[in-house]
Amino acid sequence: MSEPLVNVITPATEVGLISLEDAKILLGIPASDVSNDEQLQMLIDQNSMQLAMQANRDTFAFEEVEERWDCVAPVCCPDGTCKIYLTRYPVKFDDIETVETPEGVLIDSSRYRLEQNTGKLILIDGCAGEVLIHYSGGYKLPEEAPLPLQQAAGLMVRSFRTTAAQESTVGSGVRMISHKDSRIMYFSPRDLAGGSTGSSGASMSPTDAAVKNLISKFTRLWI
Question: Is the pLDDT of residue 99 over 70?
Fold first, then answer.
């Protein structure tokens, strides 16, 4: 199968992998404190979309889409069946509206199989050059987000806020004392910690490593 052409019919209304309320609990922010709710929701949405990109997906959110696939036989149908990995998954069987191959020729639902968690669609009788699938799939966010994805989003939001707080104080205090032609530079421990990259210069932070592990199961690897 070649890369699909995806037409979003009904885009997601929520993209955040963790609710505002849960993010506040994670960050230790009282529920009654609404002073930064708008900023926090923006961080949740931005980092959730970043996680989707890292997982090689357009979004984790539930959307109605139409996907067009081109079959290159016998590469995609070596055993006579046709296997397609839908881009919006998980997918429930009842959320598949129509399957056509070629376009305009409807395939009866008894002639295909679906692996819901992975979005793998198997056309028992193979396909005729192209396949057009109209369906809805993904997670209805944030309530349906798996716990690992919620945790990953929470870690990224917390890391962003921590880094922003550190950067706001980096460089405070005396930095240089001059006397005639001599200059002495001083760096606070916070400055040194904030600017250090380690001996390799490109080591992965503990947060990044944890996030990578958390989303590994949800990463699209078939491309």
Answer: yes
